């Protein structure tokens, strides 16, 4: 198993570790649900989270030097931060997916919500690309 990165938890006493494992280890661990690591009891769950660029809010663009301008996660427009945003929520990723693939996603949400259809599409893509060893 390989440690990929550490995530902060809402609870300051806890943190999350994201690991990569072989399909075999993955299935064994998931069946157990709990694993003892040194003296800590850890609980496990599958981690699937698409990377969204914190600068332009697009998926799959993880470089801060990416080609896209910084956009507001609330309304998808350039030139201001979310804290200064006075616009209605307008998801940049759903807008672009609608435009590119002629879809009809609702766009009246921010780019950061988990109910975002474009986000969920990314999750499905990740699952289909993940090697579960089946
Ligand atoms: Zn970006
Ligand atoms: Zn805005
Ligand atoms: Zn969306």
TrEMBL record:
One of its GO terms (molecular function) is nucleic acid binding. Signal peptide: none annotated. SMART domains: ZnF_C2HC (SM00343). It comes from Araneus ventricosus (Orbweaver spider). The keyword rRNA-binding does not apply. Coiled coil: none annotated. Residues 72-87 form the CCHC-type domain. Keywords: Metal-binding, Zinc, Zinc-finger. This is CCHC-type domain-containing protein. Gene3D superfamilies: Zinc finger, CCHC-type.
């Amino acid at each position: 198993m390989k440690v990929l990165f550490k995530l902060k938890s809402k609870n300051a006493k806890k943190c999350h570790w994201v690991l990569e494992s072989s399909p075999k280890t993955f299935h064994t661990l998931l069946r157990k649900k709990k694993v003892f690591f040194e003296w800590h009891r850890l609980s496990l769950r599958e981690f699937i989270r698409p990377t969204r660029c914190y600068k332009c809010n697009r998926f799959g663009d993880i470089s801060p030097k990416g080609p896209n301008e910084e956009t507001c996660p609330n309304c998808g427009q350039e030139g201001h931060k979310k804290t200064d945003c006075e616009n209605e929520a307008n998801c940049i990723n759903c807008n672009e997916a609608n435009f590119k693939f002629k879809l009809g996603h609702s766009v009246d949400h921010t780019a950061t919500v988990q109910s975002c259809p474009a986000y969920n599409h990314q999750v499905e893509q990740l699952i289909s690309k993940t090697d579960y060893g089946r």
